[in-house]
Design goal:
Elements: E1 2-6, H1 13-23, E2 28-31, H2 49-59, E3 65-67, H3 79-99, E4 103-106, H4 116-130, E5 138-142, H5 155-164, E6 171-176, H6 177-183, H7 191-201, E7 207-212, E8 214-215, E9 226-227, H8 244-251, E10 260-263, H9 275-283
Parallel strand pairs: 1-2, 1-10, 2-3, 3-4, 4-5, 5-6, 6-7, 7-10
Antiparallel strand pairs: 8-9
């Protein structure tokens, strides 16, 4: 298993992220290169990359993941938003490679009224403009919950995008447990069946990253509200409808072996999260 969580680059960039990860007992971690709501970024030379990579090696951390900001929407019918998304994603790929990560996770996009077919065509068009034949970084498409008009909430959407993108060997998948559950897949009682379906429609070789989250909603709600693992109404902000047993089964499963499994569970308040406890819980400690 490679277990970790989302951590911050505020302060000294990658070095700060690694130090935070060490506190949680992580093997890996995920970062945004800056605030996910905007395009403001530090210069790459100010991200303490060499120091961060050195500390990672000293503490056995590897395979960290970069998450692209939410403002990227490759499915947008708005030409300005579409162009910005392409240009900024290209820059984020360069940052990801410079920092030493192999994966940049993106929310593929929301069609905001143009329809699913047009939205998927738009995503494919955008990726064809973004991906370079010789790039090292995998653009990792996150499975989504299906709230509003967001796409990639079913495996068929991913398969369509893969078929339409020229250099699709540079594409991978990030499997988010909350999102897939909220989209309607039964990962509680039939994770093996879900993986069989994934393999048939997409191919398990595409599965490179996991986001590990509980869900505050019943299966199929399409709401995307993360929960702490095993949370109840009494000890958290709401009940986790996936449950610890199902999540443990997933992270210990053969398909997750050696892949970054990243917690994005809620903070209890502005200063308190449960990443250390949840990582230990999943390890069986």
């Amino acid at each position: 298993m490679k277990l970790g969580s989302h951590v911050s680059v505020s302060g000294k960039g990658l070095l700060s992220a690694v130090k935070e990860s060490i506190k949680y007992g992580s093997d890996t971690f995920m970062i945004y290169t800056g605030a996910p709501q905007n395009t403001i970024r530090k210069k790459i030379e100010d991200m303490s990359i060499e120091e961060g990579l050195k500390l990672m090696k000293e503490h056995g951390l590897s395979d960290f993941v970069v998450h692209a900001p939410y403002i990227i929407n490759l499915a947008s019918p708005n030409d300005e938003t579409f162009k910005m998304s392409i240009e900024f994603l290209k820059k984020e790929i360069l940052r990801t490679e410079a920092m030493g990560s192999n994966y940049i996770v993106i929310h593929p996009g929301a069609h905001v009224g143009s329809g699913e077919e047009e939205g998927l065509k738009r995503i494919s068009e955008g990726l064809n403009q973004v991906i370079e034949k010789d790039q090292k970084v995998f653009i990792t498409l996150e499975t989504m919950a299906g709230k509003g008009t967001e796409l990639n909430y079913c495996f068929e959407h991913t398969a369509y995008i893969l078929e339409q993108v020229k250099y699709n060997e540079k594409l991978a998948v990030c499997f988010d447990t909350c999102h897939v559950h909220d989209a309607g897949y039964d990962i509680i009682n039939d994770f093996d069946g879900v993986m069989e379906s994934f393999d048939k429609i997409i191919g398990l070789e595409r599965l490179k990253v996991f986001h590990i989250n509980g869900s505050l909603n019943k299966r199929g709600a399409k709401k995307d509200r993360h929960a702490n693992l095993g949370a109840t109404e009494e000890n958290s902000k709401g009940k986790d409808y996936i449950g610890v047993d199902a999540i443990k089964y997933i992270v210990h499963h053969e398909v997750a072996k050696g892949k970054p499994c990243i917690l994005e569970t809620p903070w209890l308040d502005k200063k308190t999260n449960l990443y250390k406890e949840e990582i230990a819980l999943l390890r069986g400690v």
